[in-house]
Amino acid sequence: MDPHNLEVINDLLDKDVEIREKIKDQVTEFDKKTRTLAGMLNKIHSTPSDKISSLLVSVRPVLESCRETIAALAELVPPNQFWRWKEMWSISLRNAVFSATLVEYLESGTLLSLPQVSDILGIQEEWKDRFVLTAEDYLHGLITLVNELSPDKNSIFVKDLFAGFAMLNLKNDTLRRRYDSLKYDIKKIEEVVYDVSLRKLAPSSNKSSA
After folding, report:
1. Are residues 36 and 137 in the same domain?
2. What are the angstrom distances between the C-alpha of 74 and each of 30, 71, 89?
3. What is the dihedral of CA 131, 106, 184, 188, to 10 degrees?
4. Are 165 and 137 members of one domain?
5. pLDDT tens for residues 115-150?
6. Rounded Cα gap, residues 68 and 74, in angstroms
7. Do 2 and 33 belong together in one domain?
8. Which structural domain, as residue segments, surrounds residue 36?
9. 31, 134, 189, 196: which could form a disulfide with 151 (CB 3.0–4.6 Å)?
10. Number of structural domains in the chain
11. Which cellular component appears as one GO term in the record (predicted)?
């Protein structure tokens, strides 16, 4: 090969390694934040309902800090190379989607849309060739949301989400497998609702002994 050509190739390889390492550092930071969020939000299962709002107030600053890390990632990705690098941060981004949607659901009982999640995470329109929230990553986050919610308290919301997924043409294998897992959550909900219904219909032990 031509020596000059080899030099050019080596320079390109060196730049790729440099970009990868810088992205890796930011992804590590992003992952730390999303794991912190997951740990904080896991407390909802042991927190009294009247204390949930205080818990969410403490979660908000950590969620908002993800904006800074995402901006740093967008700055590192060269123009028109989003698809080349996105797999490095996709898991962290999906976890951030989960956290954002769970916080909103606990606060208002509503589901954030994809554009709303992008806005919360500070994802800018001008980054579309470097960093965006794809439909796939958004849906992965929603499935994690369903997996996290207590079936006995959120049956209507979970069933509505499941119905929405059923209307989508899911061609991604990983996403389809995770969607299939929702069927087990729906079955669990139906079993819980059925069990609660039976308990309401059954006479109490006190009435039986009276």
Report:
1. yes
2. 13, 5, 11
3. 180
4. no
5. 999 999 999 999 999 999 999 999 999 999 988 886
6. 10
7. yes
8. 1-147
9. 189
10. 2
11. nucleus
